[in-house]
Amino acid sequence: MLNLVLFGAPGSGKGTQSAKLIDEFGLHHISTGEVLRDHIRRETDLGKIAKQYIDEGQLIPDELMISILDDVLEKEAKGKDGVIFDGFPRTIPQAEALKGLLQKRGTDLHAVVGLEVPEEELIERMLNRGKETGRADDNFDTIKKRLNVYHSQTSPLRDYYNKEGKYLKINGSGIVDDIFNEIVEGIVRKTGVARRK
Ligand code: AMP
Predict the structure, then answer these.
(1) Whose CA is nearest to atom 12 of ligand 1?
(2) How does pLDDT run across 42-72, given as a tens digit for each residue?
(3) Where are the beta strands (DSSP E) in 132-191?
(4) Residues near 140 by beta carbon (within 8 Å), at least 6 away in sequence
(5) Which residues contact 62 (CB under 8 A, 6 or more apart)?
(6) How far is the C-alpha of 106 from the C-alpha of 96, rounded, in Å?
(7) How far apart are CA 21 and CA 58, in angstroms?
(8) Quick check: is 135 catalytic?
């Protein structure tokens, strides 16, 4: 089993690197942002609630987000070799909950990959993504709010996982494949897992 968290500010490349990592280590990818956007597209009750928070650049309340993740794990992660959590946890209570959710399934979190990228680059990347994909929350005002939320509520997790010896600091600026290689080497070093290829 290999369970990883892809951690970093919005726009730090979590989605891009997750897609490459699932291939490398044969993992299941859970992006909580994607789960919520899927509900919005399908216009479910949950989607209607989520949209109000996402449009404002705010986090979905912990209790709701944790129960959504529990459901997704139940439906999607059984029998898999491990999971990449992309965009979860985003608060300390979510990190505590993740510990419990993994424990109850007889497993644990092995490493937290922290993609560190300067703020100007984050903003530029998200504005470009907004133009290319039409993603609704990638506009300047909402980006600013999301970065504030990241600094106040999510960035404390860096210390939290550092203390647990799980945080793997990665320079997330530069060429995608170089960053990926640095991540893979770090994971192999930290967890002892073998590369697939
Ligand atoms: P992302 O695709 O990870 O950037 O997430 C997009 C938006 O979905 C965030 O700005 C939040 O509003 C919401 N969201 C995603 N993951 C979480 C989470 N773990 N906790 C609370 N809200 C979340």
Answers:
(1) 54
(2) 999 999 999 999 999 999 999 999 999 999 9
(3) 167-171
(4) 123, 127
(5) 91, 93, 94, 97
(6) 16
(7) 28
(8) yes
